[in-house]
């Protein structure tokens, strides 16, 4: 595995640490042969603010259950918040994730194992308000072993897919964005992973990522074009991306997003992470997947949809994260014919 990234979360304040410094992780969990159930969970530590918070987003065939928790960092063991606990078993190779009893009805006892080296980049963007976003960004595909217990029924998740995302630094993305895609399509021998951000004119602000092969090869992505179909409510239906790499490969991958759910407002996205909420803060709610809730009705348009993918006659599964600007000045523009 690629080494060098200090995987454990930074928990101590240093003299040169910016007030808005954060260190966060996110994992997703879903079958390697289907799109439900899907779990997205994560936590973040904000040492200068003495805050640690976390979330769980569970999507079933009919609803999305959301748990958001926060507490004072100095009241924890620096590796837990509420019912969520984590451990870096081996840097960049394996993590243990446990979720105790909580209002979602979901409990987890998981060991995540990397299936390919990670991709690490740096997101550096000057926002329209002049503030600088600058953070390390890592993602890495893996598989799980362990158990998934929902409403009292336990399932062995050995072999299920899961991709982790790590980010560390200062993040303030404000204004000017049109399209956001964080794309993680896992196939039997490789994973397509990239982050693409465009402005409201369809011009590229940021592209980073790679094709991460199980045999250890990392092939950087140099270009991405897209043709996506959205509902009038800005929810993804399906679409195609064309990926070009540094090694000269071209991939056309189709995505099918009919499962629903994955609305990240349920995980506190939309500006709520890192807020001071005192000790033992907890929120729980449920979104019905009947069309009444979506990217235009929530306080964040960000959606992490568990999708089926097709490439070269093969089927894969993974997370297609997307968000369209809700500004009246923006209309989605495909870049792939």
Task: Describe the protein.
0% of the residues lie in helices and 56% in strands. With 337 residues, it is an all-beta fold. It has a single domain, classed as AttH-like domain (AttH-like fold), CATH 2.40.370.10. Strands 1, 2, 3, 4, 5, 6, 7, 8, 9, 10, 11, 12 and 19 form a 13-stranded antiparallel β-sheet that branches. A hairpin with a 2-residue loop joins strand 20 and strand 21.
Task: Tag the structure with descriptive keywords.
337 residues, mainly beta, AttH-like fold, eight-stranded antiparallel beta barrel, 56% strand
Radius of gyration: 19 Å
How far apart, in Å, are the first and last alpha carbons? 37 Å
Per the CATH scheme, the topology name is AttH-like fold
What portion of residues belong to β-strands?
A: over 45%
Count the domains. 1
| Secondary structure category | mainly beta
CATH architecture assignment name: Beta Barrel
SSE ordering: EEEEEEEEEEEEEEEEEEEEE
Using the alpha-carbon principal axes, give the shape.
globular
Annotation, overall tally of beta strands? 21
Q: Provide the low-confidence segments as ranges.
A: none
